[in-house]
Design goal:
The complex is a heterotrimer.
Chain A (H helix, E strand, L loop, with lengths): L3 E4 H11 L4 E4 L7 H12 L3 E4 L3 H13 L4 E5 L1 H16 L4 E7 L15 H5 L11 E2 L4 H18 L2 E7 H5 L1 E4 L13 H4 L15 E2 L6 H21 L3 E4 L6 E4 L2 H16 L4 E6 L1 E3 L15 E6 L6 H8 L5 E5 L8 H16 L1
Parallel strand pairs in A: 2-3, 2-4, 4-5, 5-7, 6-7, 11-12, 11-14, 14-15
Antiparallel strand pairs in A: 1-8, 6-13, 10-12
Chain B lengths: L23 H14 L6 E4 L15 E3 L6 H11 L4 E7 H7 L1 H9 L5 E6 L29 H4 L5 H5 L5 E8 L3 H19 L4 E7 L3 H4 L3 H15 L4 E3 L5
Parallel strand pairs in B: 1-2, 1-3, 3-4, 4-6, 5-6
Antiparallel strand pairs in B: 5-7
Helix pairs in contact in B: 1-7, 2-4, 3-4
Chain C lengths: L1 E9 L4 H14 L3 E6 L9 E9 L11 E6 L2 H7 L3 E10 L13 E5 L1 H7 L6 H13 L4 H11 L8 H9 L4
Parallel strand pairs in C: 1-4, 4-5, 5-6
Antiparallel strand pairs in C: 1-3, 2-3
Classes of the chains: A alpha/beta, B alpha/beta, C alpha/beta.
């Protein structure tokens, strides 16, 4: 397989097609517009279907219908659009229907701006859903990693029968990097759907008995049993889906914790700090839920401060403090609203945080 | 012995959860009879709404899914993309379709989605206990219009057939009334026609049922039927709005 | 080896396109690359810029604090960005549209009359390729034939009629 230079958003769309996606439903919102644009022609050419929905509410609903009836479904949006999709995501989780959602996030709150942001951390890891719902979230830091995750996440969503969110940001969506795309899997034909998804509503000619995809349980005991079933799967997911990378933790004085775009800035800030004689390490959570608490056990004896580095007012900070469990001081280096700090700014602020931690 | 009548296999043989005099049972049955008679029970996928008829999947003997409130037409559009050959329908009430779900129904019609929507108009929110709907008549008392709906407060009732028939890709639009056996038979013929037109993949098909809700109207079933006949049919004319050539 | 390049101009001047051509050519030559555009609501006439990083090692950060090479296609870009060139770095100025020169004396400044040369070659819109030619001659960052291959791919099909002027533009500094 040869490497091609592709814009992030186009590579993400192509990765989804190669994962055997049958349907994509989208609504225009910057900075992810190249995805519906690409899907509008490339997906029908691959044998799938595209609808430009009338709203994000409709897009997530179409996604639910297509996925409940057995299709592999991919949707994408950006932050305010994801807020609109919340209704559907919680419902789909309750209905135990698999779906992969890509959020190419931007600065908020409100309509906010269109430059890269990470202030959707709480939105995607905690969600605005009613009820007890968890959604696995993965945060790639390169176009290649994002394409690989999209390709893989359909299997994860189908295994756990739950929506999965991939949290990218405007920078990953808009930039270009060389990418090696995975092999095309092909779309599952209608008559084979129930072999892999026996629960799918395909028409009773295709399967034994009758299939119903539903969420309503008026009997509280039945509802509690259902939630417990979901949480049994979540407990498994919590063990199996934890992912992170780390570097330089053994002898680090400063430990950056950063995901996505920000982790790349921290990697360069670590080089700048090394030139100043300061050792910095990095924990890069790939799974945001489940959060990689175990990574923090690898931090070495020289650590003076753990720094959550974010494009938000400190949303991951909660999870970082929870994972640190009081073992080290925790600091925050952040910009928000679409502002992206330079690696020099991060290095300077980290040096200051190190001095303050030493006091 | 010769069998002169048997219940349709399209209905699961259980008691429905609907109130005495409610129109849902009749509407369910004629839709299911049509699907059985045309041999479609095995290749039909239905979408139920939020409202009393969320329970329809306990009674209709086909594959079904629930929907978020008002989104059934978008959900059916998604199903249609995976299943180009199946019979697909949504079954929605007036709160679901004419209030929270207006965007979805308008755009399903606008795209000419190849499925059928069965719209049960009983001029009230049933499941939540009798609140005013967009279709509630002027003067009609509900729990959120206790002195009767007024134009000043809530505007005039929304006529969905009249709206949808303006949309070019909605190819079949008809309003029927469930008030007596003759009209129920007529309604069944309309359902059959809508499904035939869906089969021909000509565009969006829509059947509105004027239907009684005695419980929330606070009327005895017979009086509720009279209300459908007199008050509802007066404001919501029972007629065909649009039929494609050849049907 | 790691080179940081920054291209700026008005929307439609092709600054992003030549950044992309260099990035693609570098990738074809086996190097690691990132191309990062500014993005916003402007389609034409607004400002447009992009950052290209080329390295023989994996690139951690596609954002840059300073540039080894800065290419400015119009005056506002010169004013706004000339301070980001590292001492000893190179600044390319489209002198056809930029009446001023740089206020920096610690960098190498190359003035390229890109629009005039492109007009002489029969298509003023190839001014960015004239600039690209000057960049290749001065920096040698990628090989001419790799870039020519990219240009041939870009100007194919419906755009094939623009290929001769653009190939001529690529030659303008390289013969």
């Amino acid at each position: 397989m040869s490497r091609i230079l592709m814009k992030g958003n186009e590579a993400f769309a192509e990765a989804a097609i190669r994962a055997g996606v049958k349907c994509y439903f989208g609504y225009p919102i910057t900075p992810q517009n190249e995805i519906p644009e690409y899907m509008s022609h490339a997906l029908p050419e691959a044998g799938g279907a595209f609808i430009q929905a009338e709203s994000e509410l409709a897009a997530i609903s179409m996604a639910y219908g297509a996925a409940a009836s057995g299709g592999r479904v991919f949707i994408s949006t950006s932050s305010p659009g994801l807020a609109l999709m919340q209704e559907g995501i919680g419902f789909i989780a309750s209905c135990e229907v698999p779906l992969v959602i890509l959020n190419v996030s931007r600065g908020g709150p409100g309509v906010g701006g269109i430059q890269p942001g990470q202030a959707d951390y709480l939105q995607v890891t905690r969600g605005g859903y009613n009820g007890d719902v968890k959604v696995p979230v993965f945060a790639p830091s390169s176009i290649q990693e994002c394409a690989n995750l999209i390709y893989e996440c359909f299997d994860i969503a189908e295994k756990y029968r739950n929506p999965v969110v991939i949290l990218a940001d405007g920078m990953l969506g808009q930039m270009m990097e060389p990418v090696e795309l995975p092999e095309a899997k092909g779309i599952t034909p209608v008559e084979k759907i129930n072999e892999v998804k026996p629960w799918a509503i395909t028409g009773t000619d295709y399967h034994e008995g009758r299939n119903v995809v539903y969420s309503l349980r008026l009997d509280p005991q039945a509802l509690e049993d259902h939630v417990n079933d979901m949480f049994a799967r979540y407990a498994e997911a919590e063990k199996e889906l934890v992912r992170w990378t780390d570097q330089g933790l053994d002898d680090a004085e400063i430990v950056f914790v950063a995901f996505g775009t920000t982790s790349r800035l921290c990697a360069e800030a670590s080089e700048i700090l090394a030139e100043r004689g300061i050792k910095a390490g990095l924990i890069r959570p790939i799974s945001l839920w489940p959060f990689p608490d175990a990574a923090f056990d690898k931090i070495g004896p020289n650590a003076k401060v753990v720094i959550s580095t974010e494009l938000s007012m400190g949303q991951m900070l909660f999870d970082v403090k929870n994972a640190v469990r009081g073992r080290w001081p925790v600091a925050l280096i952040n910009r928000t609203g679409g502002m992206v700090p330079s690696s020099i700014e991060i290095a300077d602020r980290a040096e200051k945080a190190l001095k303050e931690a030493g006091k | 012995m010769k069998t002169v009548f048997e219940p349709t296999k399209g209905m699961i043989p259980v008691d429905t959860s609907y109130c005495p005099g409610c129109g849902h049972g009749i509407a369910h049955r004629i839709i299911m009879e049509c699907l059985e008679e045309r041999g479609s029970l095995g290749n039909t996928i239905g979408v139920v709404p939020i409202g009393c008829s969320i329970n329809a999947h306990h009674f209709m003997n086909v594959d079904m899914c629930e929907s978020t409130h008002g989104r059934a037409p978008a959900i059916a559009a998604g199903i249609r993309r995976v299943h180009p050959d199946q019979v697909v329908f949504t079954y929605q009430g007036d709160g679901d379709l004419a209030s929270i779900g207006t965007a979805e129904i308008i755009h399903a019609a606008h795209r000419g989605e190849k499925f059928t929507t069965f719209f049960i108009n009983n001029a009230i929110y049933g499941m939540t206990g009798g609140q005013m709907a967009p279709t509630t008549l002027i003067g009609q008392k509900t729990t959120t219009s206790i002195y009767g709906r007024t134009v000043e407060q809530a505007g005039l009732p929304l006529r969905m057939c009249e709206i949808l028939s303006q949309i070019d890709c909605a190819v079949f639009v008809e309003r029927v009334i469930l008030n007596n056996p003759a009209n129920v038979r007529k309604a069944k013929a309309v359902v059959k026609k809508a499904l035939d037109i869906q089969d021909a993949r000509l565009g969006f098909t829509f059947v509105e049922f004027l239907s009684a809700c005695p419980t929330n109207w606070g009327l005895a079933p017979n009086d509720a039927i009279k209300f459908v006949e007199k008050n509802m049919a007066d404001y919501y004319p029972v007629r065909n709005f649009k039929t494609p050539e050849g049907f | 080896m790691k080179k940081k390049l920054f291209f700026a101009g008005a929307g439609g001047q092709g600054a992003l396109a030549i950044g992309q051509m260099i990035a693609k050519a570098a990738m074809d030559e086996g190097l690691e690359v990132t191309w990062l555009p500014s993005y916003g609501p402007e389609m034409r006439g607004g400002t447009a810029n992009c950052t290209v990083v080329v390295s023989d090692r994996p690139i951690s950060c596609p954002l840059i604090n300073d540039a080894d090479v800065l290419v400015v296609m119009n005056l506002p870009s010169l004013t706004k960005f000339q301070s980001m060139v590292v001492p000893g770095g190179t600044l390319f100025i489209n002198s056809s549209l930029v009446p001023e020169t740089s206020n920096r004396d610690d960098i190498k400044v190359i003035e390229v009359p890109a629009n005039e040369k492109a007009s002489e070659l029969g298509n003023e819109r190839a001014s960015n390729i004239v600039m690209l030619s000057a960049i290749l001659k001065e920096t040698g960052i990628v090989r001419e034939e790799t870039v020519r291959h990219e240009i041939e791919k870009t100007f194919s099909g419906r755009k094939a009629k623009f290929l001769p002027a653009n190939l001529a533009a690529l030659k303008s500094y390289l013969d």
